[in-house]
Amino acid sequence: MQALRNIGIIGRITMLEGARKQVFHVLMLFAVFLIFGSASLAKFDQHVQMKMLNDLCLFCVFLVSSVVAITITVTGVPGEMEQKTVYPVIAKPVARWQFICGKYAGAMGTVAIGMAIMAATFTFLQLSYAGHLDMAMFYVLPFLYLETAILAALALWLSTWASWPLAWFLSVLLCLLGNLKFPLYDSLMARPQSGFNRVAINTLYHLLPNLESFNFKDAMVHHLTVPNAYLWQTAAYGIFYTAALLTLASLTFARKEL
Amino acid sequence: MKQIIKNRAPWILLSCILLTLGSVTLLVPHHTVQAASPSAVSHSAARPAAAVAYDDGDGDELLEHWNSPRYGAEERVQIGGAATGFLLLGMVVWGKRSRRTASYAGLTLVDVSDPLKSEFLKSEQSLAKERKAA
After folding, report:
1. Which of A12, A129, A241, B31 is deepest in the core (most CB within 10 A)?
2. What is the number of other CB atoms lying within 10 angstroms of the CB of residue A88?
């Protein structure tokens, strides 16, 4: 119970700190501008226009949420260490894993605020163009949030052992690789490879997160049905992967000399 | 040696990333457009190309990834891996904790090297004997 309280306190402060950052405000303005801009880009008949609008808006939500999550998480722990604000916290009866979980929860809180703003803008556009709300939004957006949660956990783990610019760069690289996992694997395995290469490629393939799994944008755009079993499995997958990365980050941070 | 590697770690990592990026751009499939002969065109029109397992023929293989058994299988493999990792970690933590508890228990019974502690233990034992006798 005390652990949850500690995580809650650190999370609240991190969330407020993140929401007050200039980069967050700029990114939010950029996102709202992009979402409204996508409405003017999609100039076709109403049916195609809605498809394009949904596609562009969801892509914008994913892009901006990912950038916010990576930027806030990557600067969180190294920033605290640079400003030496981590020492008074660690000196209190707060375990290091609680500190890491608190920082993560706070960053995800900031991402949730950002996503809520973008979702509100998107809803307004949908209501004004189509006159009704697409119900698929209620599962497409949570899965985008889960994808961002994996990215944030990955960035947090990287920031516990690398400097923040390097961690940011690696996070973006892993995000790209995670989205291109299957085509990249197919193209690699289509060529003749040595035994060692095959083992290395297969290991990396199974370690990389499969971020494309969380992309249900096409289901919303083309009005397709996604099986419930797949949705549950993907949700479990996201939660497991995030928990594994957070455990790894906690272990790395616990061994770090401060 | 370790310090030298630690100091140069960012540069080593940067070169690794550049190499990775370079190899990724080389590995991504490049489709070259070739002019097909009229006979080849008629042949391909008569017989459609072999369909990919998760391709529904709309030209976008990734459009319906939820219908692909490959995605589901990979997710299950990774969930299993994470669960095994948690189980192993739990076993390690539990083992460490039980060993620590056992060593503490041993300390109270056998450690009499500390004179203060041994005096305390002696007095405790004598008190216990007196209580028993009473």
Report:
1. A241
2. 9
DSSP per-residue letters across A38-60? HHHH--S-HHHHHHHHHHHHHHH
- What's the pTM? 0.75
Query: Could you tell me which residues come within 8 angstroms of residue A214 by beta carbon, excluding any fewer than 6 positions away?
Result: A143, A144, A146, A147, A150, A234, A238
Mutate to test the interface with B, among A170, A172, A218, A231 (most CBs of B within 10 A): A218
CB burial class (10 A; 0-12, 13-18, 19+) of residue B48?
Answer: exposed
Q: Residue A208 is encoded by which pair of tokens?
A: 């990389």
pLDDT for B71-85, tens place per residue?
A: 888 899 999 999 999
Is pLDDT above 90 for A1? no
Q: What residues have CB less than 8 Å from A5, skipping those under 6 apart?
A: none
Identify all chain B residues contacting A218, using CB atoms and an 8 Å cutoff. Answer: 60, 63-64
pLDDT one-digit tens code per residue, B4-28: 666 666 666 666 666 666 655 555 5
Q: Which residue among A162, A170, A233 sits closest to B72, beta carbon to beta carbon?
A: A233
3-state helix, strand, coil in chain A (%, to 5): 85, 0, 15
The confidence score (pLDDT) of residue B114 equals: 63
Chain A residues inside the 8 Å CB shell of B20 = 173
Torsions phi, psi for A191 (to 5 deg): -90, 155
pLDDT attached to residue A239: 94
Per-residue pLDDT reduced to its tens digit, A8-37: 999 999 999 989 988 889 889 989 988 888
- Collapsing DSSP to helix, strand or coil, A177 comes out as helix
Taking the CA of residue A24 and the nearest CA in chain B, the distance in Å comes to 27
- Exposure string over B104-123, b if 16+ CB within 10 A, otherwise e: eeeeeeeeeeeeeeeeeeee
Query: What range defines the domain where residue A224 resides?
Result: 2-255
Tokens of B58: 């709309």
Residue A197 scores a pLDDT above 50: yes
Half-sphere exposure of B63 (CA within 13 A, CB side): 14
How many domains does one find in chain A?
1
pLDDT on residue B21: 60
User: What is the Cα–Cα distance from A62 to A157, expressed in whole angstroms?
Assistant: 21
Please answer yes or no on whether B66 and A215 come within 8 Å at the CB atom: no
